[in-house]
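To the wet lab folks,

You asked to see what we're planning to order before we commit. Fair enough. Below is the target structure as tokens, and below that is the sequence we designed to fit it. If anything looks off to you, flag it before the synthesis order goes out.
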């Protein structure tokens, strides 16, 4: 076991010797001759501070954008602002919008703040409709009704209101434009289910009473049943919405044209926010209808993927099931979900690549793919749970997305920190909690830094950006069966393993949550000695959670793992493959993989493994993410998050102490601790991060209100506290930054190096 531990230590130091994770990758348009004016913000050498700017009519007045830019420049630490361009009477393709964004970008660049506007096609829905009226998104609504042997039955299918942050307030919702009757099936149903041999298409026998954008009414003639079986009908109606068809043939080209239209503007990048189908809320699942996204292009893609299967008839199968066709039903669900995810992935990648082509390879592609802030059935419906494949430059989420997702996305995109968009009244606690897990706040909107204490908290946390080169170290990964979690025809629908993930975080072992599809696409990999990696994260233990419906690639992956390097565990059965065929899946997994049906049993075994590998815990996550501040209708999830006081470890060995419980601006940190076998003592406020080399020498430090630090022969003792960061560059030379407007750089710091940057401490407008 000692040998195994030494292998981890050696691998750790090899990793630390290379700059594996990205710092900043966005262009700077700042005028270097005026750089002193911008000294209240980080340079683009370091990960940025990001805020959102909600545009309204005032931004379109003469110089209407200047006030907010001046405010951001003079009274904030922001590097990047994300203008949300969502209006009731204008679209991003309008010349007026383009021209005003151009003026704002030029002005903001002169002030040292740069723009990353939202140029999503959803902000040009009317223009898309005009150009491609036959390529709008449809919703297929299915209603099952009991038929009469004596008289006709009338069925009314209503449309539903689809709205989100792209259609809020006075902006037109993703309204229904028209309704259409597509098909009606009649069949017999027994206690065992639908008699598949009795199914027949009776559409031509039915009478369409009316078809409007609000509802469709159809009359179904009487049906005489036989053999004492009850007759039913499945009514299929589609509603066309003011929303681009996800599978439309011109969607990518239209999106490219929007981005190219803005190519003459000096932008730091472009963002795409919560992409996917229109929103589908929990209440819709309880409406008594079975709903699917639909269009002729969608049906064609499904037929191509499934060797000619008919999408509409398969929707009846997926909704209601049939006797003797359980496996076929499960296969259809898996194929549909995979198709949804793959298409949205392709659209996200095309957007990403187009931005890079138009604005340059360093242009930032930002904002999150997460919509419903939990990996559940609402998100499956939105985008096929594509969070791990929606390409971004930096890991990005929003609201109360579980921390295990945030840290995993950091590994996927090679991002040294993650960003979570936040805007509620517990913002202060979120700043500190996020920092304790290697994350930062993406402020919505940027004026939310209105409190002097909240501003001071962010000013101190941003010092970490100077030395944060890698994400939070998470020794465990829970790899959940994505097909199984999303298959409503299976036995474990809507379960990605958060109970186990939460238990590990709560015990002090941060854990990444990753879908098995990351095995198939090669993002998860096994190295030459049999260790499992995700990005630059090496795992001591991996739990395969509910692998039902997995493909052979999953079994092949785990067979390559050396249990001595990455311990393997399995929870849940594997009796069906992706196409619903019966298999003995657990026989395909390595014998060294410990199998159990109990989460508690595996939890205990994982803890034993970590203890045997001498992997130390971090501060337990005792905070709770829930719906208290968001009040999302029917949102009932919760997950653990770090508290506002404690310590964590990054992959590169950096130890970060955080304290922001009693004072929003930060509490005093007086700690003596060890990094490996080396002693460190410090006295600071709010944040204190240290990194040592393999010999115990300090090589990086970031601290708010630093008073004292000692590590080996290195010691700083100051008369007055100061916000600062200090690090060795790639040549081994010390560089530093002090955050203070008027305070002279202390002589104790000048003895270390003369190479200091002065960073002003921005104050909020109301001070």
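Sequence we intend to order:
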């Amino acid at each position: 076991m000692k040998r195994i531990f030494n292998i981890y230590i050696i691998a750790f130091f090899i990793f630390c010797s290379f700059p594996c994770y990205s710092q900043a990758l966005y262009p700077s348009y700042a005028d270097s001759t005026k750089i002193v004016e911008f000294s209240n913000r980080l340079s683009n050498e370091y990960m940025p501070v990001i805020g959102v700017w909600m545009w309204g009519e005032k931004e379109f007045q003469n110089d209407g954008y200047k006030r907010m830019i001046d405010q951001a420049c003079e009274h904030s630490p922001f590097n990047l602002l994300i203008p949300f361009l969502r209006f009731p009477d204008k679209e991003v393709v309008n010349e007026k919008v383009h021209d005003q964004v151009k003026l704002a970008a030029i002005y903001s660049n002169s002030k040292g703040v740069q723009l990353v506007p939202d140029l999503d096609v959803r902000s040009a829905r009317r223009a898309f409709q005009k150009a491609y009226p036959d390529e709008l998104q449809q919703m297929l609504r299915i209603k099952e009704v009991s038929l009469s042997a004596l008289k006709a039955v009338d069925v009314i299918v209503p449309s539903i209101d689809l709205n989100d942050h792209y259609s809020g307030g006075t902006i037109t919702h993703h309204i229904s434009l028209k309704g259409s009757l597509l098909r009606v099936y009649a069949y017999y149903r027994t206690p065992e289910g639908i008699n598949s041999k009795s199914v027949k298409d009776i559409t031509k026998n039915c009478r369409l009473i009316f078809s409007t954008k609000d509802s469709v009414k159809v009359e179904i003639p009487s049906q005489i049943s036989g053999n004492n079986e009850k007759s039913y009908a499945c009514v299929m109606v589609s509603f066309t919405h003011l929303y681009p068809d996800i599978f439309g043939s011109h969607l990518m080209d239209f999106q490219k044209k929007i981005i190219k239209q803005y190519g003459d503007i000096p932008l730091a990048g472009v963002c795409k926010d919560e992409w996917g189908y229109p929103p589908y809320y929990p209440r819709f699942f309880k409406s008594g209808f079975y709903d699917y996204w639909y269009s002729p292009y969608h049906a064609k893609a499904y037929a191509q993927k499934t060797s000619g299967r008919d999408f509409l008839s398969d929707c009846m199968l997926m909704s209601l099931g049939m006797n003797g066709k359980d496996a076929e039903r499960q296969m259809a669900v898996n194929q549909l979900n995979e198709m949804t995810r793959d298409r949205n992935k392709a659209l996200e990648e095309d957007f990403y690549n187009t931005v890079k082509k138009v604005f340059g390879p360093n242009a930032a592609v930002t904002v999150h793919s997460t919509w419903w802030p939990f990996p559940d059935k609402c998100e499956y419906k939105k985008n096929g749970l594509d969070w791990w494949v929606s390409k971004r430059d930096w890991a990005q989420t929003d609201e109360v997305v579980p921390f295990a997702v945030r840290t995993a996305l950091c590994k996927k995109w090679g991002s040294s920190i993650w960003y979570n968009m936040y805007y509620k009244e517990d913002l202060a606690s979120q700043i500190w909690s996020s920092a304790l897990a290697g994350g930062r706040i993406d402020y919505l909107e940027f004026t939310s830094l209105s409190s002097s204490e909240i501003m001071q908290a962010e000013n101190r946390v941003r010092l970490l950006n100077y030395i944060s080169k890698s994400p939070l170290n998470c020794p465990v990964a829970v790899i959940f069966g994505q097909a199984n979690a999303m298959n409503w025809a299976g036995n474990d629908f809507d379960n990605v393993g958060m109970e186990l993930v939460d238990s590990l975080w709560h015990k002090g072992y941060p854990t990444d949550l990753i879908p098995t599809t990351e095995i198939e696409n090669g993002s998860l990999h096994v190295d030459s000695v049999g260790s499992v990696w995700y990005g630059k994260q090496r795992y001591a233990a991996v739990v395969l959670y509910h692998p039902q419906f997995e493909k052979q690639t999953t079994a092949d992956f785990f067979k390559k793992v050396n249990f001595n390097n990455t311990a393997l565990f399995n929870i849940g059965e594997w009796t069906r493959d992706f196409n619903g065929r019966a298999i003995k899946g657990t026989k395909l997994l390595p014998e060294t993989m410990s199998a159990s049906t109990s989460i508690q049993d595996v939890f205990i075994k994982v803890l034993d493994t970590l203890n045997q590998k001498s992997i130390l815990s971090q501060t337990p996550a005792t905070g709770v993410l829930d719906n208290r501040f968001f009040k999302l209708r029917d949102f009932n999830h919760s997950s653990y998050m770090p508290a506002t006081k404690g310590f964590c470890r990054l992959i590169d060995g950096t130890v970060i102490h955080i304290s922001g419980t009693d004072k929003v601006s930060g509490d005093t940190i007086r700690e003596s601790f060890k990094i490996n076998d080396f002693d460190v003592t410090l006295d600071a406020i709010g944040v204190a991060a240290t990194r040592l080399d393999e010999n115990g020498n300090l090589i990086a430090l970031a601290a708010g209100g630093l008073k004292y630090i000692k590590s080996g022969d290195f010691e700083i003792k100051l008369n007055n506290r100061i916000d600062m960061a200090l690090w060795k560059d790639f040549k081994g030379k010390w560089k530093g930054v002090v955050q203070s407007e008027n305070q002279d750089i202390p002589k104790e710091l000048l003895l270390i190096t003369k190479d200091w940057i002065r960073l002003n401490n921005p104050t909020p407008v109301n001070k």
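Structural context that might help your review: The chain has four domains: 2-124+343-466, 128-248+278-335, 476-612, 641-759. Residues 326-359 form the longest helix (34 residues).

Thanks,
Computational group
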